[in-house]
Design brief:
The protein is about 10% helix and about 40% strand. It has about 180 residues and is mainly beta. The protein has one domain: Sandwich (Jelly Rolls), CATH 2.60.120. Strands 1-2-10-7-12-5 form a six-stranded antiparallel beta sheet, with no helix packed on it. Strands 9-8-11-6-13 form a five-stranded antiparallel beta sheet, with no helix packed on it. It has a two-stranded antiparallel sheet with strand order 3-4. Strand 3 and strand 4 form a beta hairpin. The longest helix has 8 residues. The two termini are about 25 Å apart.
Length: about 180
Amino acid sequence: MRSLSIEGAWETTPKIFEDRRGTFREWYQGADLRSTLGTDLHVAQANCSVSRRGALRGIHCTKAPPGQAKYVTCVSGAVMDVVVDLRTGSPTFKRWEAVRLDGSNPSALYLSEGLGHAFMALEDHTTVLYLCSARYVPELEFAIHPLDPELGIPWPKEIEPILSEKDAEAPTLAAARSSGLLPG
């Protein structure tokens, strides 16, 4: 596992087994996570999203406690996946890091509680799978506007972003911080 520049965010490249039938990917190994992080990912929910080109999902985060850790991979198509540190007081607060995940690249990301997550589908029919340490509870989730200029995430300019109504109406990072929405 490779540590990203944001504390609590990791990238891993799982094993792929290939033969004449195709491929088999071990996209999550609890033992690998445990040996690197010293903890297990308790899986409370598994999600699968299928997106059209330009779909921009996030920046989403779950209030802590309990927070929600995620383990994310892309099994078909491609995404620009972004991790954003939303933890006030963190030395990497407001920092983001982007990683390309795609069906031909077996990488996966692990995001600790308190980190924001977003991705943009770069192709039609992009499929992203993620394991979550806590179930989705609407009252505990919050969003930051993914096009917030303060964050300056360089989403691909050649792709028109498609946002949900919820994400389009999400507050900026500054507004979320001043309202006490962000985790400590």
